[in-house]
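Thread title: Can someone regenerate the structure for this chain?

I was given the following input by a collaborator and told the matching structure tokens would be attached. They weren't. Posting the sequence so someone can regenerate them.
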Amino acid sequence: MDRDRSTANPVPKLHARTTADPWARARAAASAWVSAFWLLAARAVRRCWPAALAPMLLPLTAASGSVSAPVQPCPQLFGLFTAHSPPPGCWRPYGPNSPFNKPIPAGALQASDSNAIVRQMLREGIGFAGGKQSFQLDSLGSRPIYWAQPSDPLVRIHCTYMWGPRTCEGANGVVVDGLQIHIPAGAQPEQASDGHLTVIEQAAGAEYDFEHASWTSPTELTVASGSEIPISADAGTGLGGIADAGDFGLLGGVIRASELKAGVINHALAISVPCTQGYVWPSRGPWGLGCASIGKSSWGALHMGSLLQLKMSNRQIAATGAPRWERTIMRAMAHYGLYINDTNGGGDDQTLELELEGDESFTSFGESPQMRDLIRTAGGRAWSNGGIGVGGVPIDTAKLRVLDPCVTQGTCLDTKGSASAANHRSGNRSRHHHRHRHHRRKRP
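Best answer:
Regenerated them for you:
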């Protein structure tokens, strides 16, 4: 994932701090304890009152869209999460104003170039893993996530600016090089070549996302790039990062095994594609692998940051006969969509690759690998790359559409197309190196 910002200051000023102010810690802790109180109150109410009244005591999250989905109560216990007590399946990161958490409205405006993009994808055979035979889910997640507590060791971050100036800071300008943050002892980066690692400092209300991370010593983590973005109980946008090509937070759009077990995903998904041309909001630049650079046509190419939607209702999804875990993913695709956050690299020029939480989140601490266990229970089998995978019902690329950027920005004037048409920025790719993932998941 190369990035070159020739106009940036090559020696950014370091921020001398270790954690956020104590008031942020106090607010996060208070919110967690209040949520725990209401969770216990709701459980007590359910014993005595009609079940319909209990959800009133809790924050509600639900997949929604053109077809209503059942509302599921969920305790907001941010601040208390650990590897041994991770977020429940009903939980989602960031706040209601995050683009990841906004359901796609009925009648959402389609991008003017959507049909051309889908036709080009069909011509080039681009689709989800499994192609026309099945929809494949594997255990090789690319996003290990670690929930830090103030009692965890302090670790100094050494960021090498591998992709050029300003690649060790996010949109908020906080330089992570030299920063000290809490990281649970034993936390390991993603095992594939991108080496992603995400740390959530719950007391500080901060998410730290790193790329090509490796341990230099027990108290120093070396990374190629990194950023800090805000996150707390029901707050944050998931934007302004730097560890993927879309400049999103690495927690944004990730599918967790606990969500598949619960049968509901209340947020948009993140997806890596073979290549892109230009970008749209919420991405901040054309950092992905350009289609022309791998011999593909730039005409009809996908844009970094675009939101794709599966054009199916809940009833149509149920009628496919897909397994429960796949129906859960399909409903999220239909109600919240899929944001393009990265490009594949490694010679993979056909796969639409979903971002999954890495099992390192659990195995680093002796816990069972959650995604691997879920796939095994669903009938998965071993793959040649060391992971295991399971197949479902194929998802036809023709059932996807690209939404106009005004949908994600909330600026559409009406549903007849009077807002901006394509509204994407092509960027000057000759002035940039392109960031992209360097690994390819092998199929069985």
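Residues 24-100 form one domain.
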